[in-house]
Each structure stands twice: as structure tokens, then as C-alpha cells.
Amino acid sequence: MSIPKPLRRTGVRAATSAVLALACVGGLGACSSDEPDTSATPAASASSTSETSPAAEAVQAGLDKHVEGDLDGASAEYQKALETEPENALALYNLGLIAQTRGSNDEAEERYRAALASNPDYQPAVFNLAIVRKAAGDNAEAEQFYRRAIELNPGDAGANLNLGLLLRETGRQTEGDARVAAAIKLNPELVDPATQ
């Protein structure tokens, strides 16, 4: 399993931040054996200020370590950011991402929910929380989170695909087929697992 790319904040080393964009394929889907490899890797978050706070600097240091694969170092930096900014959605989300990568779905869920308490419309946390809830066997809540992720970002092929597969699994074949078709239309590189 590849290490997912962490969330970046523009305005903090904007040149490197721009490298990461929301990718609907790859990353965390492998954390759950029944989920396709379609979870969202984090997106750049807009921040137009050129000044950086200690929390932003710690998040950036964490991002650098996260991208290099130093998850322990990244975790330490994200924790440092939370010391000065306890509701920093970027740090909370990325700590959840690390926990999910390591198979600690309970901790990941706690971090994603904290990120959403700070920013209820934070789509990457909504999407990954759907994956965690699906892995826990809570199809109803997973469906709610997938639908919310799509509401926040209708162009998210991964959320559409995962919702479609969940709908098929729960006996709603027609709606599931429509979501899978929508996902493939959004990202033609995706393949309907039913055709393989």
C-alpha cells in the first residue's frame, strides 16, 4: 500500500503545495479489503495570506515529512500544530490519514470527526470518514457520508464509485449502476468492478 499524500495548505510554500491536488484514485482504499482503491488523497486548501503562523509552519513541516514517508515525524509536527491551534483541520485530517494508513480506523475516525467539528464542509474528511464507517460495517452512515462528500464535490469520482458499489451491495442495483457510470464518466480511468 502506498502512503497517501497529505493535505497541503496554499500560502505555505505555495509552489510545493500546488503539486498536490484532489486525486480520486489511489491511496487509502487499500485500507479496507472490500473498498476499491478510490479514496481521496488530500487537496490543497486555500489560504491567501503570505504570513505563516506557528501552526501553519508545523503543518508544513509535517507535510514535508509525510510526503517523504516519515509518518512518525509528520505526526509529531501535526501534534505541534495542534498545541497552538487545537482545531486546525489540516493537522487533524492528516493525523487521521496517518492513523488510517496504519490501520487504526478508530483513531482515524476520531481525527476526521474532529476535523469536521472544526470545518463541517471539509470534503476529504467526509470522504475518508465514509470509508472508515464502511470498513466498520456501518453501511447506513457510510452512505450518508458518501452522499455528503458528493454534495460538497459533485466531481469526486471516487465518492461516486464507492457510493455506487455500496448501493449495489445493499440491493439498490439501478441507483448503484447510475453512480458507477457517473464515476466512470468523471474519471474514465476507473473500471466498473462488475465488468472484470
Written account of the structure:
There is one protein chain. Strand 1, helix 1 and strand 2 form a beta-alpha-beta unit. The protein is elongated and about 50 Å long. It has 196 residues and is mainly alpha-helical. The chain has one domain: Serine Threonine Protein Phosphatase 5, Tetratricopeptide repeat. Mean pLDDT is 79; it is low at 1-50. It has a two-stranded parallel ribbon. The chain is built from nine helices and two strands; from the N terminus they run E-H-E-H-H-H-H-H-H-H-H.
Shape: elongated
**Could you tell me how far the N terminus lies from the C terminus, measured between alpha carbons in angstroms?**
22 Å
Spell out the CATH superfamily.
Answer: Tetratricopeptide repeat domain
Please tell me how large the radius of gyration is: 16 Å
CATH class: Mainly Alpha
Poorly predicted runs: 1-50
Properties at a glance:
196 residues, mainly alpha, Serine Threonine Protein Phosphatase 5, Tetratricopeptide repeat, two-stranded parallel ribbon, 2 strands, 58% helix, 2% strand, disordered N terminus
Question: In short, what is this structure?
Answer:
By secondary structure, the protein is an all-alpha fold. 58% of the residues lie in helices and 2% in strands.
SSE blueprint:
Layout: E1 8-9, H1 14-17, E2 44-45, H2 54-68, H3 71-84, H4 89-101, H5 105-118, H6 123-135, H7 139-152, H8 157-169, H9 173-186
Parallel strand pairs: 1-2
